[in-house]
Amino acid sequence: MVIDRAALAEFLRRRRASLQPEDVGLAAGPRRRTDGLRREEVAGLSHMSTDYYTRLEQQRGPQPSEQMIASIAQGLHLTLDERDHLFRLAGHTPPPRGGISEHISPGMMRIFDRLEDTPAEIVTELGETLRQTHPARALTGDLTRYTGPSRSIGYRWFTDPTTRARYDPRDHDFLGRMFASGLRQFATIRGSGSRAAALAAQLLDESEEFQRVWELHEIGVRPRDTKRYVHPHVGALTLSCQTLLDEEQGHRLLVYTANPGSESQEKLTLLTMIGATDP
């Protein structure tokens, strides 16, 4: 496929003009001379330099990579159809949809953007964290920093002791069964060539504990509504977890809250003030 620079530039300008700061979780600020977002705002949301983004709107520069286009699609809160169109304009084949897609829907992003003072995260069906609020990073550390199979909390559970150290030991057995059950479910749904199946095969080679739990052949071990954490600075917290599911993408928005007036609520407030800690 060949890049269509003129159409790409026009599409970016139109989409940028159609968005207001509050649509993407930004403060409105002082009066603006033109409608829509500024170029520097889109660049910041897309994790790239303003100069790089500006060149795309001005039909200049090299062909953007698939990674750059994916970042712009997320920064502009594009729908899946719009994302696929953007990829084609940039001369790339759109990435697959469904279970392995990392493109978060605009609706879910709008909700997430309004949860900045609440522990919340968006995860894939394999437990890979795509977005975290600041309070969520304070609670569990930055879970978006992992690469490779370690992006999945199910993989880390059986291979990285620091992951399970954040959870109450009374829940460890259940959580191990839950992660294995979920991985088996998606390996079956997605097939033998899927990432879920590859992750299960890798864990079978690396973890004797996973082998024992996998042999139970459990399906449908669901997450509990109550999560018990052990934080290195504030100690034990008991939180409720509410889940919003994007059925098309398989993403889940997880929101954590504590009972008003409880000790856990006080600790959450303290954590937000402390900021993120390493896992």
From TrEMBL:
InterPro entries: Cro/C1-type_HTH, Lambda_DNA-bd_dom_sf, MLTR_LBD. Pfam families: HTH_31, MLTR_LBD. Gene3D superfamilies: 3.30.450.180, lambda repressor-like DNA-binding domains. Residues 36-83 form the HTH cro/C1-type domain. It comes from the Bacteria. Signal peptide: none annotated. This is Helix-turn-helix transcriptional regulator. The lineage of its organism: Bacteria, Bacillati, Actinomycetota, Actinomycetes, Micrococcales.
